[in-house]
Design a protein that fits this description.
It contains one helix and nine strands. By secondary structure, it is mainly beta. Strands 1, 2, 3, 4, 5, 6, 7, 8 and 9 form a nine-stranded mixed beta sheet that branches. The longest helix is centred in the C-terminal third of the chain and has 5 residues.
């Protein structure tokens, strides 16, 4: 394993967050903030509030994601398929987009991604021909990245401990 990895072990705190919580929201050592950035073309993991499962994260965050250091984890997408990943079992606690607000889920199957807002409104986003564009004139989003709050239930290291 690469000792210079940008991967943060979800069981460790991240004091560099600077929020006084020892690196975790609400002081819960199992809660982690993760960046989800679309690679489009069905390369991304779907996420839904309340979803429990195994998720893949970048072991070494690509340089193109320069602000990834502000997050505990960065969701893997196959746009960078030559990159090592780490798997964590977790529950999605919340999904937040800076412009759309709280989201219920992001569906990533098919030619369009569907961002479902907290009020149930669906925002359909082209994921194939013109990634990131919408048919709606009322939605003008240039960055579809979201923050996913996770409650980590297990990591690969937990199995060996």
């Amino acid at each position: 394993m690469n000792n210079e990895s940008n991967y943060s072990d979800p069981n460790e705190t991240n004091p560099s967050r600077g929020d006084g919580s020892g690196g975790t929201p609400s002081g819960n050592s199992r809660i982690r903030r993760a960046s989800w950035r679309p690679g489009w073309h069905e390369l991304d993991q779907p996420v839904a509030t309340g979803q429990m499962g195994e998720f893949e994260f970048f072991a070494d965050v690509p340089e193109s994601m320069s602000d990834a250091g502000t997050f505990d984890l960065v969701f893997f997408n196959q746009l960078k398929s030559d990159t090592e990943t780490r798997t964590c079992s977790a529950k999605v606690v919340a999904i937040e987009h800076p412009e759309l607000g709280p989201l219920e889920r992001i569906d990533t199957c098919g030619l369009d991604y569907i961002f479902v807002k907290g009020d149930g409104e669906q925002v359909v986003v082209d994921a194939e021909e013109d990634p990131g564009s919408t048919a709606s004139n009322s939605v003008n989003v240039t960055d579809w990245s979201v923050v996913v709050t996770l409650e980590v239930t297990a990591t690969p290291d937990d199995a060996v401990a």
